[in-house]
Specification:
seven-stranded antiparallel sheet; 4 helices; alpha+beta; single chain; Alpha-D-Glucose-1,6-Bisphosphate, Chain A, domain 4; globular
């Protein structure tokens, strides 16, 4: 249920307890790993260069582990201490048009390679959208560290379908501010 203030931990915990054992709200689980677009969804791919050095690489991985890609003033994860591990369930809270919405997601897969680190999470029935999002940092052959966001989504809740242009605008806002959050974290560490 949307509300005027961020949902308290007790509400978020009860929400996650109900959602934890439910299946994903889409059948294309894991498809952010594919190179091709997922049919029937909006497909988005974004990235930003974070810098070049071992320090930037380590800071970028630390940012992902600590969920710092979420611009906390209007979009955040609860609990913030959730480890990056397959099967973990989180509540993503977002303030849209003055109301806070509580959404559920489960980590689908984790990438932990020498030059790639991140994870994808997918929506559960308690999410207003339906789909999956990949949050990843990668180090290219020339040492450039990039933050990558890849997603496929479509509205699931009737209000999200009705307000589709607004929902897409907030998704674009999230991408912009997520990239800025990652840049800021890396610069500070």
């Amino acid at each position: 249920m949307p509300q005027l203030f961020k949902h308290p931990e007790s509400i978020a915990a009860a929400f996650l307890a109900r959602e934890r054992s439910l299946p994903h709200s889409y059948k294309e689980v894991g498809d952010t790993q594919k190179e091709t677009p997922v049919p029937g969804f909006d497909n988005d791919f974004n990235f930003i260069e974070l810098g070049r050095s071992d320090a930037v690489w380590e800071a970028a991985k630390a940012a992902i582990r600590a969920w710092k890609m979420f611009p906390g003033d209007w979009a955040c994860i609860w609990p913030e201490t959730t480890p990056i591990r397959v099967g973990e369930v989180v509540a993503m809270q977002a303030r849209v048009m003055g109301l806070w919405w509580l959404n559920s997601c489960r980590i689908v897969y984790v990438i932990d390679l020498p030059d790639k680190f991140g994870f994808a999470y997918g929506t559960l029935p308690g999410h207003v959208e339906c789909g999956e999002e990949l949050f990843m940092v990668e180090r290219t052959a020339d040492g450039t560290v990039r933050y990558v966001l890849k997603a496929f989504s479509r509205p699931r809740f009737w209000l999200a379908r009705l307000g589709y242009p607004i929902a897409r605008a907030y998704q674009r806002k999230f991408v912009r501010e997520s990239k800025a959050s990652m840049l800021r974290f890396v610069a500070e560490h």
